[in-house]
UniProtKB/TrEMBL annotation, chains A, B, C, D, E, F:
Belongs to the HyuE racemase family. This is Asp/Glu/hydantoin racemase. InterPro entries: Asp/Glu/hydantoin_racemase (IPR015942), Hydantoin_racemase-like (IPR052186), Iso_Racemase_Enz_sf (IPR053714). It holds the Pfam family Asp_Glu_race. It comes from the Bacteria. GO terms for molecular function: amino-acid racemase activity. It comes from Albidovulum denitrificans.
Length: 213, 213, 213, 213, 213, 213
């Protein structure tokens, strides 16, 4: 396949897109990976309204990219995933789905770092829909702003602390429940001595499996 | 990471290893992938005894490769997976587990092509252990020898016929339940108009996700 | 409570709204029930795109009705249900969810009449999210147009025939998987000798439970 | 339909029946609702023996009411539900079943107030039979006598306290696990800021859906 | 332990009790086993009413036997099981529960021979309550009278034929869903080449495990 | 049946075999029971490697005993269970599987005493494979050596303490998760006032059911 894997950041914050681009650098040898910003997206996807409002724009963006070999929707709520799949003629991966499925290959029970308390029920409904919620050990909120979580010096310390709680809940593998925390993956893995999954990397890896084979 | 992804063929048939090597050619840009044969393996893994007898040799092979960044056990019965994970200091992927998890990102209910009737209950127990058997639409045997399935001209026709039955069972994504049928993936996908998963490719993609990030 | 139960037809076909109004006549003694049309809706909701495109307009309509005691979204795909619940300060009922839950009180395993084959996977994902798919005996498509299904003389005969198949699948209670087939409920019940659930009536009954008490 | 919905209090305490009658006042506009006492019942249903001893008398009572359009068995243990269904020619609703199903339309994970510790395992078996126990956040006992729970001034305070614990368990909707606590529903809902389900009201609403349509 | 295992036939047909006595002859070396008839039982337990009407008499009988080391309720509907457990100070085993659990140790998916079509939904509810219905391959009715099934020459032929259907459903172990078919177990096992479980023998074995240890 | 039930201790510690022999004394009236040691086994089975290394020797031992009527693999990890079943022409029981299934007939939710923390994930995977993990209340480690657990005076006190925690987790029946703690069963049962299952006794009882009938 010659087309790129198009990773769509459904929010309009270009800094997040740039972060995705950086986090995927290691994957670039075998496949072309292009990170794009959904101009119509909100600055951050933090509510059910944000989730629902990007479905149609995501689908529209997909229609402008007939050259893509696969798409990744890079927001942990997997907004518009069903519509994007109905629209695209190529595989579409959601990062929550890919992150959770990948975690199931790395441990028995997974734990999730959520940015905000409010998104936990939304994630739980989605995991029930996947039929894998019985392997969830726990999900806990960092209670930081997205901005803070992506940059703040205190983030790794907070992740480590919440990660210990998730391990106490029974988790033996952990998922960063947000598109923008990839840079904490390796140090957090070292601190917790457990695999840590960045969901965008997980989705891109699955996309590579679909398009390179 | 600089070490290779080591894909182990747990049977001693070098032709199968060569086939794996060929099937993974597309993945070679971003990661080093090395396919090795388990010298102590039986010529084919066709029974529970074969499954159990390779566990310790697989673990021993893993100990000889401290340079590996990840391992893939390339037999659809995922032999020795628990021991290999206890042995290795790096991630270990089984191709059944990876193939099934990947299928869950490509469709709602999956169907499986088994080589032989006798392996179906073994696979079912394993999927129950994963906790995803409720998304299985059906598994059907090709009733061909492994040899035949890898080479025979009639194989694609047989796969297409059984694939139609699996679609009739409710499957919207299909898994090749064997390490040696990758070359049928693309034509079968075209014939059935449904995604077809090669489990070794799925496992290697997951391994890339773990080591490249 | 003094406000009305507002039943929203998310498509723009006023005839469907009128049909809902007629089907709910029997409920009017104890509660005010108002059936409204979503002007921005498509003429019929027949695809994932239709489902996604009405979410925001439904939410907007809800905001214009602070007087409502409860809302019912009268389309079997339960479009925009999560957003409507996030928007409304009063209970919101989806007719698929209410229809399925009500069926669980009337039989052990339920069967569903879908209008079109294409909506079956969408329904299945939603039932998995509810966690009740293990009590589904089967869902079968009528393969009629919505228009035909609502009016055609042949509809009852077709429902009876498909209903027999669903009973053969193990169903002891049946759900009309569409907002517009209420008038077939009583004769179909007589023909099949099994309870038949109209999902809009089921949702309105639940809404009455929430607001009258 | 012209017959009444007959709500049967399976214990012989007329005060409980009168309480039911009062709690259902709001439903009387659209349907006739008649609350009756099972003369043969124990004064309260507090043990497995009580549950089993009312099954045949309930069935006998049902046979004396060929005029009924539906029955509601108003005890949270749903005593004799299978026999009553085999006996009646019209729909029969149990309040536990109806209460739990209704809760599933109001929240993601439900919590239950039990009167006594001893009934919790009985309820759990019944929810497993329904196949919805995986959505139970928790059940906690008030550890009050039925009498106290129905009248005592401290009851609302106790319910509020236990309700906070259930919310801590993950519940976002709560069920009063007894036929006699309806009068606490509205104030408790206000105190906890979560929907509270009275199971008898839930069952009568479902019965209305079955008979009015 | 010195008391007997008391096996109660909840119907009043002494010939069934004698049959149980005969079927348990092989177990008599290590434990005293006493088979008794519930005088108050119906001649056969064939309906939900029969199931419910024996609960209290079974409990009363249990109270007359303080010498028993354990009880077995020898009817496949496990009538009164919860009450008998609440009454007895020693373990009580139901034959459906014991038969199904034992089957899970002998195969992956079990099939059941029911005497009559009408009891299948009752059994299914009970297996859901146990939480093991996902391992059920199928249940099929013999459609013979109990009398016929216990004696008739055609019974083995009929069992063999239905057994082949159950194997076709995916069953690799079979359960005789009735207390009176033990004498067909060994020949049926030979005919089907699959383990066949007599549920009374399974329950008595479990009872021996509880009392001999 | 005339052959013995052969109980195999898969570790090479003869004292454990003697303990099994002692624990099964009560079962000897009705069946011959022979306890044998797997000479090739490790001194104790404490890791995944130990589990995997005994599979082939267990199968070989089984082949030397064509006289056996049934086999019991007396290690709580059920090592080699699939291979032993493929090898033997008679029933094979694993003690974890038998212990858990037996517990399901004695209570609603079971708790498990593990010897070591490290075996808990292994047990959990196996219970998921059985499909009964949803009835697990909890598993807690004694954190004693096997040696200590079998003899030490403090063992009963430690079991009682951990048992109280398991009851706090919701367990109403408890399983000794090891082949060597049978002698604590009766006193522990008295201390905790809950049924306690010795898994080897449970497996031998099931084996008796299979061979005596």
């Amino acid at each position: 396949m010659t087309g790129p894997i198009v990773v769509i950041n459904p929010n309009s914050n270009q800094a997040v897109t740039d972060g995705l681009d950086h986090a995927l650098a290691g994957f670039r040898g075998a496949a072309r990976i292009e990170c794009v910003t959904l101009a119509e997206g909100p600055f951050g996807i933090e509510s059910q309204r944000h989730v629902d409002q990007v479905a149609l724009p995501l689908s529209a963006l997909i229609e402008t990219r007939p050259d893509a070999a696969a798409f990744v929707i890079a927001c942990y709520s997997d907004p518009g995933i069903d519509l994007c799949r109905a629209t695209a003629k190529v595989p579409v991966f959601g990062i929550q789905e890919s992150g959770v499925l990948t975690a199931l290959a790395r441990g028995d029970r997974f734990g999730i770092f959520a940015i905000a308390e409010a998104s936990i029920p939304r994630h739980l409904r989605y995991m029930r829909r996947m039929g894998v919620d019985h392997r969830l050990a726990g999900e806990r909120a960092l209670n930081m702003s997205v901005d803070e979580s992506a940059r703040g010096e205190g983030t790794l310390a907070r992740l480590t602390e919440v990660g210990q709680d998730l391990i106490g809940d029974g988790a033996d593998v952990l998922i960063l429940g947000c598109a923008g925390m990839a840079r904490h993956r390796v140090p957090l893995q070292a601190a917790l001595k457990r695999p840590v999954i960045d969901p965008t990397q997980a989705a891109v890896a699955m996309a590579m499996g679909a398009v390179l084979a």
